[in-house]
Amino acid sequence: MRTQVAIVGAGPAGLLLGHLLTRSGIGNVVLERRSPDYVLSRIRAGVIEQGLADLLREAGVGDRLDREGLLHTGFSLAFAGRRHRIDLDGLTAGKCVTVYGQTELTRDLMEARAKASAPSFYEVEHVELAGLDGDRPSIRFRQKGIDDELNCDFVAGCDGFHGVSRASIPSGVLNTFERVYPFGWLGLLADVPPADEELVYASHDRGFALCSMRSLTRSRFYVQVPLDENPEDWTEIRFFDELKRRLPEEIARRVRPGPAIEKSIAPLRSFVAEPMRWGRLFLAGDAAHIVPPTGAKGLNLAGSDVRYLFEALREHYHEKSGAGLDAYSARALRRVWKAERFSWWMTSVLHRFPGMSPFEERMQQAELDYIASSRAASAALAENYVGLPY
Ligand code: FAS
Ligand code: PHB
To answer: In this structure, which residue's CA is closest to atom 7 in ligand 2?
Structure first.
């Protein structure tokens, strides 16, 4: 089997890249180790930056996002028993974010790919990348017990943090940078109304909490927990009681407990692998970098990586120029590192770290007071939250 671009992974990065390539007449094949239902069952991101929303619209897959997504022109920080609204619209000259679940975005991309009859292989096993440092890369894999091989010009590693692509780069080539946070987020999805019209990020002595949503009838909540917590130890009653204790009274009283549709703990990590290219292999999305979800950047960074990689591949095939491919890693990393900084900063300011000194606690309070009292500080937060320019 042969194609121009082999894509490993059918998460948002792989599917969005595949969609853009197909629209541009560039052949591509997607290989995914899980089933479509499994991919859709993973509850992840909920906030789409302005840039990614615009990219999805340009690519013809933004209709449902516009119909069902919730346009948010701000969000609130809650601390010291009060709230402070970050006016995204007013502070960024009209930019905003759209609340739309990653599951729905992935579903839209799956449907677009099926409609275009672009080849995808799900539930593949034993994926092995070969020939990446030459000009004839290939991927060996097994599906339904039959071994197969995909020859291609380029491989897009869109297979997430635990994928095979980054692991296929010889040791010594990559520089990796990592910070693992000493806590996790216990997330709960429930068919209850949101606690507020917009998202609420709460900093409290008991720990961080986030009130988010998927629609006006489905909410997503998070509380910071120690890494060794077991989600099964958290009944809905315990979860919602803890959530409300971390919120200002005016918000806590609007929380409507309900049965969990999904409940899980996500670890928090900052991670970057440099470079994002080795020979004919290009990494995009979580395969190359991870951010703590505090800044809502993970999914959105996958979007900007894909935008850069697609433009570079289109230049290669349509303009016979390799300049974009040669510049891809440096270009993508410039935006990645700024998002890493913002996500690390938001996490550092809003979470309680084990063993924090009284001085560090005062520094957190001062950061929040400064944001609440300075337009410049709020504007800096806002421009990062809506997404820095591509
Ligand atoms: P993905 O991990 O989504 O997709 C990679 C795909 O590759 C998967 O489908 C996987 O099955 C497949 N794959 C892996 N190995 C393979 C192999 N060997 N062969 C073939 N396929 C293979 N971001 C936010 O902005 N907000 C959040 O709240 C948030 N919560 C998260 C919670 C969790 C538990 C996790 C893990 C991530 C969360 N993220 C969040 C980040 C998340 O949204 C990612 O940024 C986003 O999924 C990135 O998309 P991809 O790069 O496509 O990677
Ligand atoms: C979510 O709705 O899952 C969500 C929203 C904002 C974040 C993280 C997660 O920063």
So the answer is: 296
